[in-house]
Amino acid sequence: MRRVLTTLLVLASIAVGIWALAWWQQERLIFFPQPLASTGPLPSPFEPLDVTAADGTRLRGWIRRGAAERAPAVIAFGGNAEEISGLLVDAHWPRDYAIVGVNYRGYGASEGTPGEGTLTADAAAIHDAIARRTDIDAQRIVLFGRSLGTAVAVHLAAQRPVAGVILVSPFDSLTAVGRHHYPWLPVAWLLRHRFDAASLAKRNRMPLRVIVGDADTIVPPARSRALFDAWAGPKDWRVVRGADHNDIAAHDAFWTDVVAFLRERATATAS
Q: Residue 105 sits in which domain range?
């Protein structure tokens, strides 16, 4: 009996130790800040874009101006291991749109340390800086989020008026995704950065397009569908066949769906 109790105590101590480590190190498990993809500036026509956050932190990214005098704009939010310049330079973005991307805190050349509260607050500062520009039509701003960036985009859409939202591989909450990957951890107790997108999606009434890969091994399709179902506004669901979480943008069908939605929103909001 004593040996059994000793074994149980050892196992309990190990479990508590693992939980404590997960609590203290969770930022390293969620956020993977990436350096700049290139030491030089992005090629023309991209221009550097600096945004000062509410607490004075300097966030750095780029903008490609749109073709029109007052152009519609896409504000892009990347994944948790994504330096944003790689997404911005993709040749598929329509030329009439301004394309905007600012790296999260600690990513690229942005200052600070990432966290749920700061990333969502910074998104509002980025939106407001873009909406004030005279070369941007503030009524035609579309948000684009991928993976972790979908939660940031959903939060921003609940706080600011936008013309539409594109979510790629979204999830309803990081808690639910964590439970899927770590069923042996009490994720709901441990997680500080919950990114509960579904609760905010219930407030969002602008048009939504969700794009998922049917071979996604990171965000289970059920988690994407739960976010989609929670969305209060008009919405459509697109599946890219054979696409996994990290290669979905390599499929032509992905960009067909992205560009078609942007064309629809530019036309609808201009009329």
A: 31-270
Within a domain: 24: no
Q: Per the domain annotation, does 198 fall within a domain?
A: yes
CATH code, domain with 151: 3.40.50.1820
Between vectors from CA 32 to CA 27 and to CA 35, what angle results, nearest 5°?
Answer: 135
Among 35-49, 64-78, 205-219, 247-261, the range scoring the smallest mean pLDDT is 35-49
The pLDDT tens digits for 132-161 are 999 999 999 999 999 999 999 999 999 999
pLDDT at residue 181 in the model: 56
Alpha-helical (H) ranges within 25-67 are 26-30
DSSP state of 37: S
Instruction: State residue 176's pLDDT score.
Output: 81
**Would residue 94 count as lying in a domain?**
yes
Give domain status of residue 177, yes or no. Answer: yes
Q: Is 246 helix (H, G, I), strand (E, B) or coil?
A: coil
Could you tell me if 227 and 210 are in contact, meaning their C-beta atoms sit under 8 angstroms apart? yes
CA–CA gap between residue 243 and residue 271 (Å, rounded): 35
Beta strands in 199-271 (DSSP E): 208-213, 235-240
Q: In angstroms, rounded to a whole number, what is the distance separating the alpha carbons of residues 108 and 125?
A: 18
Pairs from 50-53 (Cβ < 8 Å, separation ≥ 24):
51/102, 51/122, 51/125, 51/126, 51/129, 52/125, 53/105, 53/112, 53/118, 53/121, 53/122, 53/125
Round to whole Å and give the CA distance between 209 and 197: 15
Domains in the chain: how many in total?
1
